[in-house]
Model the fold of this input.
Amino acid sequence: MRKYIALVFLIALSLACGRPASATQQLTVTEVKQILAQAIQEAQARGTPAAIAVVDRVGNVLALYEMASNNSTNANGLRSVVITSDPGQPTGVLGKGGLETLSVPARGAALSKAITGAYLSSNGNAFTSRTASQIVQEHFNPKERFAPSGPLFGVQISQLPCSDLMSATNTVTIGPKRSPLGLAADPGGLPLYKSNELVGGIGVIADGTYSFDTNIRDYDSDNDELIAIAGAVGFEPPTGILGSRITVEGKTLRYTDQSSSSLASNPAVATAFDQITSTVGALVSLSTYFDGTIQAGTAFGEAASGYRADTTGQYGRTNAFILVDQTDSPRYAPKAGTEGTTTALTANEVTVIIKQALNVAFSARAQIRRPLGDYANVTISVVDTNGAVLGIARSPDGPVFGTDVSLQKARTAAFFSSTIAADELTTAGQSSYVTAVRAFVGSSALSDGTAFADRSGGNLSRPYYPDGIVGKPNGPFSKPIASWSPFNTGLQLDLVTSNLVSHLEFLTQSDYNGDGVINADTDANCTALSVTSSTSASRLANGIQIFPGSVPIYRNGTLIGGIGVSGDGIDQDDMISFLGLHNGGLELGTGVGNAPAAIRADNLTPQGARLRYVNCPYKPFLNANTQNVCAGK
Amino acid sequence: MKKAAVIRSVLLSIVLTILVFLFLATQARAEETLSPTGSKLAAVTVNPVLVTSTVSVALGADTPTTTHVTAHTASGKALQRSNLGYWVPWDGNLMSLIDNHFTATGGTLVFKVVKDENMSDELFPIRVMVAYRTAVAFKYGVFELRTTTATK
Done:
């Protein structure tokens, strides 16, 4: 009996402290049809024709469906919706710029929402596009004056169609797949689960606007969200991992504003998808994403998904995960830096740094996962000063969004810490930001070799400086608050706007920028920065990221790259990058490590407020009581 | 009668020659120039089952001493073309580039990037760099090879 109790205890403990290394669940075609049928029925009950997207966990589009509608269409007959930060004024709020007022294909908007539900979630946390809305605004919580910005401020500008990491074709199933509009903050994007395992997401847009929720103090009855909830019935996450069970900075996250009890229809009696007539709507295609035929999803963790366990043991553990291509070959095995200098990172150094960062992650108490006591699940990227990817690895259940974001973070730290950043930005037509940051920080900013962690650059990318303090001016990389929105962030967006417009022109065959030319699809190379000969791409080939989780890498004071981490809380991401690099340096003994303290950005006090470098959790480890783990390093 | 047949034959040859020229012209690219900071060249769309791609570069006053071709696939592979036309792994270091020995003719350098290759196992787009060294500079340009089958 004791043995039996001990066995039960061990099983329970293993379930509590870890997740299956390799999921086996996947959506079938029958299930995709069921999800569509349930959503269509709810949309009919609400009298709101919807565009509906279903994806698997790595962004493969399993279905795109549009209900018949008289809503606005563009010149080519594509149903469209408008990007706006004020749905009350769908033509856009006066003074706001960036992507605001752009008319985008409804099916693309629905897809971005579905991808958001899938990518932000994991087997330990279920987040929605409403959760995204809560954590990307100028205050967290939104409208909470003087509170700092959302912890994932800027994450919407990721998974971009121009990213060199994201897969841009539906001829193969490996992910992660790109998203036409990046991540969405417009409610109506939910994750989908089977047997407690994340298998994908559903995205719905029916209201004509692609926006976000500025008021968290009420509970909306949002048709997009309710239709998505109906579609997801039978595919809900375990209650224990809902975003509404997870706190960040003491604030509870929001999963949805309504539940299935508010539905206008009964999903259990939805008309079978194959019985729905063409007068109701039809499956629709979207070039490079979906060909109009419903697909089954991939099983995350199997090679076909583009993610699987590492079998080489190179990271000193059996539960590290890697990215693979369509032939099951590793995509980003550790390699040496491309600079051709004696100080460049070696392949072994990259391996050790990633291994040590993984060690920190597997030891760290997760911030955004349940049950309590789970370890942090993240993706780790290492780059050189050319932006070349030197290695990517991850823990098994890191949210997929962290793949692209960790690379963005690594590149951002390496780029902004370089002495060529100012010249590069000027070449790319962003000289106004160089002028602004030099007026703000000092005349040699972005060319004097100051070490910028993503937290430091993020400080300068907020619409208030210091962060959240109403009445203070914007940081030099941000738009002023009067024109700031998640669709008009500043340098981060401006670097990739032309890529996004090219992609929209390609998808819709419409002339967005009025230049008389309908562009071909964007290159898999974000930004107009110069292309390096070592990578054939810009140093920021998937854009920049402006929330914490990366540091530059040095060898005896010489910049040689960056490490980026994404997938858990931002303090955990900071710690894993900073401490992983520190520990890697100790193991290697080759002079590799963090920036010398004297050149870190936290020596700077623009406008009388000190920039931050990293912020590590106070007592972060599951099996140790160590405190202040980053102090003095 | 015989003379007329000969004329017809000559005319036919001329027409065929023009057609062949036009066909080749559509497969090749307009002449472009490379630069020390990297020129962005126009993307090329190919059928991955049978890929042929050449790049003609105007040299101006340059005299290339070595010529190079590299490729970065969407899956993350970095490759370079050897002088025998094989694709081999490349570490991204400019010092390890292999000379492809392309020769200039009349101020133009033609890079034979790929010829009749089945690239259906590769993940597109593929970013290609063509480059040459002179006595004083390394000049390069980058373009994207895209597939006609990006969508099923």
